[in-house]
Design goal:
Blueprint (H helix, E strand, L loop, with lengths): L1 E4 L20 E2 L4 E2 L3 H12 L8 H10 L4 E3 L8 H6 L6 E7 L1 H10 L9 H17 L4 E6 L6 H12 L4 E2 L2 E2 L2 H11 L8
Parallel strand pairs: 5-6
Antiparallel strand pairs: 1-4, 1-5, 2-3, 7-8
Helix pairs in contact: 4-5
């Protein structure tokens, strides 16, 4: 899972109650989801080349410029030229990277029968190295947490978000306290979804 902060728009997302700043869905057969449908479609088109109407570079760039989300959850930023395509258009990106054991990623994709997106652990390490070195060399702010351990680390996540883009923690100019944030966190975290 990669969450990306974009612009200075304020949203409070409550995945458990279906309150999101964008149209998305949980996809039970893949045991994943909640990525914005429009971003997921675009990133899939960039990565896999699977959406003919979205293969125009000009259209991709216009869509990226127009996305007005504060936080986006989409693991496809990790793959291929997705990150480079976004960085060619946007300079306001920061990343909270939720890193999972690459062997577990492969097992999870097999279990979900997502064979078109299947990469072995060595390929995933290469993708991650390329992704991370791009962030480092371009001076893009990021923090890394471990999945699923971060589910028990609300305070760490709050601090990481605060260091990446404090505006994410604001509603109408008022900062959400750690205590209130923890209450929301506890209402949405579902550790039963962490099985491989």
């Amino acid at each position: 899972m990669i969450q990306m902060d974009i612009k200075n728009k304020i949203y409070v997302s409550n995945y458990g109650n279906g309150l999101l700043p964008y149209e998305s869905e949980w996809i039970p057969q893949f045991n994943s989801g909640y990525a914005p449908n429009d971003v997921r479609r675009l990133n899939s088109a960039i990565w896999l080349g699977n959406d003919a109407p979205l293969q125009s570079i000009q259209l991709q760039q216009e869509m990226i410029k127009d996305f007005d989300y504060n936080v986006i959850k989409d693991p496809m930023f990790f793959y291929g030229n997705v990150l480079d395509t976004w960085l060619s258009v946007r300079e306001d990106l920061t990343f909270l990277i939720c890193l999972r054991n690459f062997h577990h990623v492969e097992k999870s994709r097999r279990k979900a029968n997502q064979l078109s997106q299947l990469k072995n652990p060595e390929e995933l390490r290469l993708c991650f190295g390329t992704f991370l070195s791009t962030l480092i060399f371009k001076g893009i702010k990021y923090q890394i947490v471990n999945y699923p351990n971060f589910l028990d680390e609300h305070d760490t996540i709050y601090s990481h978000i605060e260091s990446l883009d404090e505006s994410v923690l604001e509603i109408k100019g008022k900062k959400i306290s750690r205590k209130k944030s923890l209450k929301v966190w506890n209402s949405i975290v579902d550790k039963s979804l962490t099985s491989i």
